[in-house]
Specification:
single chain; alpha/beta; seven-stranded mixed beta sheet; globular; binds S-adenosylmethionine
Amino acid sequence: MKIYLTMKDNIFLDVPVQYEKIAQATKEMKFNMASDLHTGSLLKTLVASKPSGRILELGTGTGLATSWIIAGMDDGTRLITVENNELLLDTARQTLRDSRVEFIMADGYEWIQNYSGEKFDLIFADAMPGKYDLFQETISLVKEGGFYVIDDMLSQPNWPEGHSEKVKRFITNLEKQKDITFTKLKWSTGIIVVTRIKK
Ligand SMILES: C[S@@+](CC[C@H](N)C(=O)[O-])C[C@H]1O[C@@H](n2cnc3c(N)ncnc32)[C@H](O)[C@@H]1O
């Protein structure tokens, strides 16, 4: 039987212009925790659903996912992106220069606990703080109807010993959380899209 593949999910016609330059720098820096194209594309689509939105990214890295987030932003949308490695953050900052974006060099643990500004329409939590640690504090920063997005939920070759258990525990806890609804996607590196709802 002939199978027709009607949908190819590895064709990206809208890769951000700065992406290649950042990908090259990422390779040179041997940074191996970068988000992939699928995740970036999904982020762009979700961000575009929040005109004049407030977006938070925890774990900028070299800015690959950031470039997709920016591509989904309209003029009124603002992004805060937090990273504790100056070298990585600098690559993102220099390549993505954008007045709508605040690049913050900080420890995510401290930043989350000290933040007292407006809540966010979308949080991409891509560092330990905000995902495996300080989850309650972080999800409470998402507006009702807002998104909380995480990737790397499927086994990755660079995971340290014991990380699978951490992921399983995280998902079990997510399943008990009352003020969210979510979808697990066995796609890309394993994505979970969470929407915050009224309890
Ligand atoms: C999975 S990578 C992020 C990749 C990025 N989203 C991208 O598209 O390339 C996680 C990032 O979180 C940063 N990080 C780790 N611990 C942190 C902390 N305590 N505070 C802030 N950033 C942290 C790491 O330096 C790393 O760049």
